[in-house]
Amino acid sequence: MKARVTAHKDYTVAKIDDRLYGAFLEHLGRAIYSGIYEPGHPTADEKGFRGDVMELVRDLQVPVVRYPGGNFVSAYNWEDGIGPRENRPVRLDLAWHTSEPNEVGIHEFADWCRAAGTSMMLAVNLGSRGLDAARNFLEYCNHPGGSYWSDLRAKNGQREPWNVKLWCLGNEMDGPWQIGHKDANEYGRLAAETAKAMRAYDKSLELVVCGSSNANMPTYPEWERVVLEHTYETVDHVSLHMYFANPEKDTGNYLALNHKLDRYIETIASTINYVKAKKRSKKDVYISFDEWNVWYHSRKQDRAILDGANGWPVAPALLEDIYNFEDVLQVGCIINTFIRRSDVVKIACIAQLVNVIAPIMTEKGGAAWRQTTYYPYYFASIYGRGTALNLLVESPGYDSEHDDNVPYVDISGVHNEEEGTLTFFLVNRNGEEAVDLEVRLQGFTGGMVTDHQMMTNSDLEAVNTAANQQNVIPRRGSGASVTDGLLTVSLPAYSYQMIRIKL
Ligand code: AHR
After folding, report:
1. Phi, psi of 137 (to 5 degrees)
2. ∠8-9-13 over CA atoms, to 5°?
3. What is the position in ligand 1's atom list of the atom closest to the CA of 28?
4. Catalytic, out of 26, 172, 224, 326
5. Is 86 a catalytic residue?
């Protein structure tokens, strides 16, 4: 089977915001406790952060991490996580039916982010709380000193403000499962007033308002219209979430799901434009896709804990999806979609980062390792910085539940002018046949393949475990070359590839 792509230097989508490769950490399951934080672990530092996890996170060069939730934030008192540890209360977390010891709070998270080389994206609680808690939290984090909350921060050991610029106005407020769920008008008003108060302190904040929890919500996309009519002038991004599943083990339909993602993005981009026009506004609002991932492998096993069968445990194993090779292809397709829509999607966070539907897994007291999906995320984060190209793709396709004629070749291209590189991320959705691909490189000078990484596997269900951490890993690809402005490469059946060209 043959396919052809044209890449022209001047035919671009947008400069990619580095935060497209962000991540998310919630007080949920073992993301924090025995994930990033485990005093007593053989690799723990003096603050209790696991060194083995830190190393895997640092390798990813994660630009931003959203915190502390998620559903958790909608009943969270941020003040519970400050001050001497021995005085911090244990609270019942109603979102995940667990007990929250509050050993980690904003100070510890900020320290961890600094050590991990990433920045903070904080969420305020607009479920059980509101404007007042939000403005106090902002003052606590960002004011240099001389006020009640900033002096308390200094007393608690942090004199310098953290100066957090990126804030989420609640989480999934359209969802009936959310503590303090609201309808679009109630939430829109509250978000607008909270944004006003936060901006009264600092106009330069970047604020993210809740959009839909997924594209199947009955209120989607009317929710976005109503919420944006209240908030358009005071926010910068609308938050969207989507989780991908293959319960029927239907690989064709599964790998076509990013076409649904694409329509979701397009619909909300249109809704943003509609409100912009209605308001006669000059301002742009973008999409923050601050929760995305595969999530379905662990749903059944979590039921008992979420129903309370185990009481109120501290940091039980929850949402511990073990990802397989098929999920590598899915994550590759999802990230390709974000790159192709980087004109409107400025922030995206893989949900989550450690243990909870995550690319990194740990054992309490034991190993930390890369799940299969670590790799497509890694390659995109490391090599996907630059300008996204608007590629012309001519590929045979197949019909699916989500779209007809889904091309077998899913591809994105990133040009980094400063480094003089061109990088392609490719997935072959065809499980039967290899695709011989030609990419015509137009407007670029020279070109030599300097790195070619490939992931293939005869078993779509192959996984990595603590005992077998190298089962699904990338290998050096072969046979990709550039001659006279033409890149030729063969994409084996069901494969993921990253090809880097030095110009
Ligand atoms: O990431 C897991 C959960 O998924 C988050 O807490 C919530 O925002 C979403 O429903």
Report:
1. -60, -45
2. 85
3. 6
4. 172
5. no
- CATH code for the domain defined by 17-383: 3.20.20.80
Q: What average pLDDT does this structure show over 26-51?
A: 98
Give all strands (DSSP E) within 273-367, no chain letters.
286-294, 345-351, 360-362
Contact 329, 496 (CB under 8 A): yes
Beta carbons of 216 and 186 less than 8 angstroms apart: no
**Ligand 1, atom 7: nearest CA belongs to which residue?**
70
Asked if residue 500 has pLDDT above 90, the reply is yes
The catalytic position among 291, 326, 394, 418 is 291
Q: What is residue 409's three-state secondary structure?
A: strand
Class in CATH terms, 2-9+389-502: mainly beta
Q: Which residue is closest in CA terms to ligand 1's atom 3?
A: 70
Q: Is pLDDT above 90 for 446? A: no
In whole angstroms, give the CA distance from residue 207 to residue 234.
8
Average pLDDT value for the chain: 98
The domain spans of the chain are 2-9+389-502, 17-383
Asked if pLDDT for residue 131 goes beyond 90, the answer is yes
Task: Give per-residue pLDDT as tens, 1-12.
Answer: 999 999 999 999
Q: Which atom of ligand 1 is nearest to the CA of 243?
A: 4
pLDDT in tens, 243-255: 999 999 999 999 9
155 pLDDT exceeds 90? yes
Question: Above 90 in pLDDT, residue 181?
Answer: yes
Residue 488's identity, in one-letter code, is T
Q: Where are the alpha helices (DSSP H) in 148-281?
A: 148-155, 184-201, 222-231, 251-255, 257-278
Q: What is the 3-state secondary structure (H, E, C) of 137-166?
A: HHHHHHCCCCCHHHHHHHHCCCCCCCCCCE
